[in-house]
């Protein structure tokens, strides 16, 4: 019988339970960060249990890292969370990439970078953007705090099997249009909850040509469509990315042979299907307070349909029928697990090379990991950013959610490569406009958003 990629991985991991009820699944990789792990470890201690597979668990520090002066953690809560993670990982023998460490970075950036994220695995983390790892053809999803404890203790998790949705991406990607625009375009069209209850697989000719970095950006934002899991079939691009990475399988050819069995046999197997054509896609930006409140550079800000729109407009300080070019920007932020990988920085640096930021703009460039940071310094990207007038920071979540000193001030507008534009997300009263790294970099130079896909843009 033909099966989906999702079904094949699921079926190889069921330990107990029947379809239609929660099933117990084996977990191949458990990623941990400082925010959602303190209680689970307390739970283990209070019941005198150990971590079942510390070797399949990996911890990093990301949310609370001060990206300017990494060891100078002023905030008491942040410091407590970091110290607690260091203490817990030591006590339970879990590998930790602490601040300053070569392997440290945003959890969803370092998993793939180390080669821990691999096809056909089940990967969990107490973090909603775990969907990112699905780009490798893994089932990867965020879990709650009590589930983190369960996985630590048993290396397994109870889950209801979701339905599957195939999103076929067709057409030709226009100039300067990226994976970020595709996923933002899909969410703008179908809303922030169409994926609830579904595991999404992205497929089709456009996806096949995307780099691993771009696939990660798409899968990362599946959660913003309500789906806990976004995935892409593993292929040669996936295998080439993984080859030679620190934690990649040593018998690599055998691994590739195994991974190659994991694909959707027939698209008619999806419970739900949709198609998204990118040929006419324009750069996307958000105007409101959820990722679905977005428009393309060819549109004007929408009219007020309901109370939610009114609230969003009141918060964001804009008005209907404005052009996206007229959104007054104060900051640009290039970072987060959506868009802080080397390729993202390279695209942004290309936009900024030999140019300088507009006088109204403050820019923070925050690489997703120390490895990326080092590579960007070595290859001259950091210099381009610094010469353009940007602040070049240390790796961490930074202004993506402002759980650290990187906060956008109240009332200020930021063009951001992150994934959420919720009220207060990037600092109390901050006003977020999500976009691709190329768009955000170009906005930094121009001082406002510009249509980088237009013929006139050079
Ligand atoms: C802090 C963490 C639990 C949270 C998440 O789950 O996503 C954060 O990473 C976010 O992006 O909002
Ligand atoms: S970068 Fe942002 S979205 Fe990603 S894990 Fe950190 S806070 Fe969450």
TrEMBL record:
The keyword Ribosomal protein is annotated on this UniProt entry: no
Residue ranges of every copy of the Aconitase/3-isopropylmalate dehydratase large subunit alpha/beta/alpha domain listed in the record: 7-447
Cofactor annotation comment: Binds 1 [4Fe-4S] cluster per subunit.
Enzyme Commission number(s) from the entry: 4.2.1.33
Gene Ontology BP, a term: L-leucine biosynthetic process
Keywords: 4Fe-4S, Amino-acid biosynthesis, Branched-chain amino acid biosynthesis, Iron, Iron-sulfur, Isomerase, Leucine biosynthesis, Lyase, Metal-binding
Record keyword Transmembrane present: no
Pathway per the UniProt entry: Amino-acid biosynthesis; L-leucine biosynthesis; L-leucine from 3-methyl-2-oxobutanoate: step 2/4
PROSITE patterns, per database record: ACONITASE_1 (PS00450), ACONITASE_2 (PS01244)
GO molecular function: 3-isopropylmalate dehydratase activity; 4 iron, 4 sulfur cluster binding; aconitate hydratase activity; isomerase activity; metal ion binding
Required co-factors: [4Fe-4S] cluster
Residue stretches spanning the membrane: none
Record-listed [4Fe-4S] cluster binding positions: 337, 397, 400
Pfam families: Aconitase (PF00330)
Catalytic activity: (2R,3S)-3-isopropylmalate = (2S)-2-isopropylmalate; citrate = D-threo-isocitrate
Stored InterPro entries: 3-IsopropMal_deHydase_lsu, Acnase/IPM_dHydase_lsu_aba_1/3, Acoase/IPM_deHydtase_lsu_aba, Aconitase_4Fe-4S_BS, Aconitase_4Fe-4S_dom, IPM_dehydratase_rel_enz, IPMI_cat
Listed SUPFAM superfamilies: Aconitase iron-sulfur domain (SSF53732)
Family: Belongs to the aconitase/IPM isomerase family. LeuC type 1 subfamily.
Database matches in HAMAP family: LeuC_type1
Subunit and partners: Heterodimer of LeuC and LeuD.
Reported function: Catalyzes the isomerization between 2-isopropylmalate and 3-isopropylmalate, via the formation of 2-isopropylmaleate.
Name the UniProt record assigns to this protein: 3-isopropylmalate dehydratase large subunit
Phylogenetic classification of the source organism: Bacteria, Bacillati, Bacillota, Bacilli, Lactobacillales
């Amino acid at each position: 019988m033909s099966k989906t990629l999702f079904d094949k991985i699921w079926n190889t991991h069921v330990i107990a339970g029947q379809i239609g009820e929660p099933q117990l699944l084996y977990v191949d990789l458990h990623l941990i960060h400082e925010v959602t792990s303190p209680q689970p470890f307390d739970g283990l201690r209070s019941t005198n249990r150990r971590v079942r597979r510390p070797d399949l668990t990996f911890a990093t520090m990301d949310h609370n890292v001060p990206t300017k002066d990494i060891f100078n953690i002023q905030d008491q809560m942040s410091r407590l969370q970091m110290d607690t993670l260091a203490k817990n990982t030591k006590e339970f023998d879990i590998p930790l990439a602490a601040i300053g460490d070569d392997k440290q970075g945003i959890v969803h950036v370092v998993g793939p970078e180390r080669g821990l994220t691999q096809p056909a695995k089940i990967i969990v983390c107490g973090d909603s953007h775990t969907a990112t790892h699905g780009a490798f053809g893994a089932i990867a999803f965020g879990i709650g705090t009590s589930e983190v404890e369960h996985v630590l203790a048993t290396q397994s998790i109870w889950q209801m099997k979701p339905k599957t949705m195939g999103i076929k991406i067709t057409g030709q990607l226009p100039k300067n249009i990226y994976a970020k625009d595709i996923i933002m375009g899909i969410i703008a069209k179908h809303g922030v909850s169409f994926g609830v209850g579904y595991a999404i697989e992205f497929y089709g000719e456009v996806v096949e040509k995307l780099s691993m970095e771009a696939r990660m950006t798409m899968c990362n934002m599946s959660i913003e469509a309500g789906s806990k899991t976004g995935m892409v079939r593993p292929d040669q691009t996936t295998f080439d990315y993984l080859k030679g990475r620190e934690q990649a399988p040593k018998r690599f050819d055998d691994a590739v042979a195994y991974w190659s069995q994991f694909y959707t046999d027939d698209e008619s197997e999806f419970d739900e299907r949709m198609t998204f054509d990118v040929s006419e896609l324009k750069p996307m930006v958000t105007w409101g307070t959820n990722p679905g409140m977005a428009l393309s550079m060819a549109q004007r800000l929408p009219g007020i349909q309901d109370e939610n729109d009114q609230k969003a407009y009141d918060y964001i300080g804009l008005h209907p029928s404005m052009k996206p070019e007229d959104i007054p920007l104060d900051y640009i932020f290039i970072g987060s697990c959506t868009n802080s990988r080397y390729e993202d920085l390279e695209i942004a640096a290309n936009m900024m090379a030999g140019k300088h930021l507009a006088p109204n703009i403050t820019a923070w460039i925050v690489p997703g990991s120390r490895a990326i940071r080092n590579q960007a310094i070595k290859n001259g990207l950091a210099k381009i950013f610094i010469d353009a007038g940007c602040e070049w920071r240390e790796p961490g979540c930074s202004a993506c959610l402002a759980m650290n000193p990187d906060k956008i001030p109240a009332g200020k507008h930021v063009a951001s490569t992150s994934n959420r534009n919720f009220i207060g997300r990037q600092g109390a009263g901050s006003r977020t406009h999500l976009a691709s790294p190329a768009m955000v970099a170009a906005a930094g130079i121009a001082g406002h958003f510009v249509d980088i896909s237009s013929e006139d843009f050079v």
